[in-house]
Amino acid sequence: MANIGVIGAGSWGTALASLLSKNGHSITVWSCVEDEVKMLNEYHEQKDKLPGVILSTDMKFTMDLEEAMKDKDILVLAVPSPFTRSTAHKMAPFTKDGQIIVNVAKGIEDSTLMTLSEIIEEEIPNADVCVLCGPSHAEEVGKGLPTTIVAGAKKKETALYLQKVFMSDVFRVYISSDILGMELGAALKNVVALAAGIADGLGYGDNTKAALITRGIAEIARLGISMGGRIETFYGLTGIGDLIVTCASMHSRNRRAGILIGQGYSYEEAMNEVKQVVEGVYAAKAGLGLGKKYNVNLPIIEFVNKILFEGCDAASSAKSLMVREAKIENIDLRELYMNSQDAPW
């Protein structure tokens, strides 16, 4: 049995806390929101963000960050990506050397173009920072529906340990050392999901959705390989797998926000309507910045940025995406891959 602190009591943090508790581990959940902690202690249910998932009475809920972190084998960092840096900064004084911190949020910091694991390492340099991502809606994990996911770590022994801790008969865990590739796929698929939602809002069909998914993963892979990620990561669970589920499901807050934007809402109005953090809005600028930094063409991500931040009309922007210069379908990704970094293990 592991002693685990879950930092963040949103839908994903709560779903993972429930899963880990059912796996037999001791769980303490932290939130900075007093009403949220009161609700969890009284009802053992995240009524606002994960209704219907009843949590074990053995789980603890607290606003005391030190209490949530003390003597923990694993810390699961589950706050929305815009709050990763500030939360990690608060965690730093209470973090023991070699502390395993598993980041489960998805995003890139637009001001620095850093991945979330890089941010955590900068704020907490004495930690062993890992990631967990893949096609996994909190609503389905909370209900115990079969899900597959990937644990990424720099040390193989840490990855194997996390695999053992998280894995169950309904939650299958693979391992990887390509943390960079995993995080880029996880963050940028949200931008493509916004595009897919915008297409739905405009009344486009399945042909459009299939095009956005396949060309979207091509964009993400081009960028990721240029940055040192591995090609198989982008065509695996944390790449195409996560992209499919986020573009196709109404559980996806990014797709739902995109639908509203396609119907004429601003991104601020769409986020207010969805009532949750829409990670793709924050990742869009960062993705565009990375494309410029690494000289990689990202037309779908550019399309989303124009609609979100430049006031461009969604329908006319979609048309401009279609009438760009004609291209071949595939560049030689294998040649790019041969020039990328080899796996450390």
Short overview:
The protein is an alpha/beta fold. It has 17 helices and ten strands.
Describe it for me?
- This protein starts with a strand and ends in a 7-residue tail after the last helix.
- The chain contains 17 helices and ten strands.
- The model has no long low-confidence stretch (mean pLDDT 93).
- The strands form two sheets. The protein has an eight-stranded mixed β-sheet, with helices on both faces. A two-stranded antiparallel ribbon has the order 6-7.
- Helix content is 52%, strand content 12%.
- α8 (179-201) runs antiparallel to α9 and α15 (299-309) runs antiparallel to α16 (314-322).
- α4 links the parallel β4 and β5 (100-103).
- The radius of gyration is 20 Å and the shape is globular.
- It has helices at residues 11-22, 34-43, 65-69, 84-91, 116-123, 138-142, 156-166, 179-201, 206-227, 231-234, 237-248, 253-262, 267-274, 279-293, 299-309, 314-322, 333-338, and strands spanning 3-7, 26-30, 60-62, 74-77, 100-103, 108-109, 114-115, 128-133, 147-152, 171-176.
- With 345 residues, the chain is α/β, with parallel strands linked by helices.
Task: From the structure above, extract its key features.
two-stranded antiparallel ribbon, 12% strand, 345 residues, alpha/beta, globular, 10 strands
Q: Kindly estimate the percentage of residues that lie in beta strands according to DSSP.
A: 5-15%
Q: Estimate the helix proportion, in percent.
A: 40-55%
What is the typical, i.e. mean, pLDDT?
93
Shape: globular
The succession of helices and strands, N to C, reads EHEHEHEHEEEHEHEHEHHHHHHHHHH
Number of DSSP strands? Answer: 10
- Biggest β-sheet description: 8 strands, mixed
Low-confidence stretches: none
Read across the widest sheet, the strand sequence of neighbours is 3-2-1-4-5-8-9-10
